[in-house]
Design goal:
The chain is of the alpha+beta class. It folds into two domains: 3-182, 2-Layer Sandwich (BirA Bifunctional Protein, domain 2), CATH 3.30.930; 191-234, SH3 type barrels (Roll), CATH 2.30.30.100. It is 28% helix and 34% strand. The strands form three sheets. The protein has a six-stranded antiparallel β-sheet. A five-stranded antiparallel β-sheet has the order 12-11-10-9-13, with no helix packed on it. The chain is globular, with a radius of gyration of 18 Å. The N and C termini lie far apart (44 Å).
């Protein structure tokens, strides 16, 4: 696609009422029935490819702020791409991108929020038993069955996303965004175990660095940076 064509798409938001082939992180299946917010944001940011995690940062914060603004619910972040309410997953984020000469040519930020969806519909779509419902939720469920105006929620989300995106190259703003994410970080201050291929690291979770790695303080006082790629977490 020509660069001029991409520029016309910059900031385009694509919405779906439902998705038949939704995809999550590591190509897991994402069940997307009616009642949720399923959207993709097309961007052409002037960012070096090594800074792509910033797109994940601003998406996470915008979603948390939108949900908290629209409801009385508090959001937590399970790094790198899950939003939790009461320790249950309510939202997932996936950032795809293409690069050109070490810079991001374009990016698509995919967001899926279980707003008013029936959790049992998701569980059936997963082919899982009812116990799977203990780890997922919807905003409606967490509000005791009260419906949420999805488009009002979307409006706030996009306003917050645009605000953070406009400051994406300002280092002081990035520090503030990261701080607000860490304030919501699940497991912050607790001892956790991170599993990677042939590797396990245990320590106190003390934050996230600007490159997107989790920071663990080990028993000997040393600090380990653990890449968010292909990790699983045990709290």
């Amino acid at each position: 696609m020509a660069e001029s064509d991409l520029k016309t798409l910059d900031g385009t938001v694509v919405l779906a009422e439902r998705q038949d082939n939704g995809r999550g992180r590591q190509n897991t299946r994402w069940i997307s029935p009616s009642g949720g917010l399923w959207l993709s944001i097309i961007l052409t940011p002037k960012l070096h490819a090594t800074r792509s995690v910033l797109l994940n940062f601003i998406a996470i914060l915008a979603i948390c702020e939108a949900i908290e603004s629209k409801t009385n619910l508090k959001c937590r972040v399970k790094w790198p791409n899950d939003i939790l309410i009461n320790s249950k997953k309510v939202c997932g984020i996936i950032v795809d991108l293409a690069t050109k000469e070490s810079f991001i040519y374009y990016s698509v930020v995919g967001i899926g929020i279980n707003v008013n969806v029936d959790i049992q519909t998701i569980i059936r779509g997963m082919g899982a038993n009812s116990e799977a419902g203990a780890s997922i939720t919807s905003i409606k469920r967490e509000q005791s069955g009260r419906f949420v105006n999805r488009y009002s929620l979307l409006k706030i989300l996009l306003e917050r996303f645009n605000c953070h995106f406009s400051n994406i190259t300002r280092e002081n703003e990035i520090v503030g965004i990261l701080s607000r994410i860490c304030d919501r970080l699940e497991g912050m201050g607790n001892t956790i175990t991170l599993y990677q291929t042939n590797c396990r690291t245990t320590g106190e979770l003390i934050g996230i660095c600007s490159e997107g790695s989790l920071l663990l303080k080990k028993a000997d006082g040393s600090i380990s940076k653990i890449s968010s790629e292909d990790i699983s977490v045990q709290y």
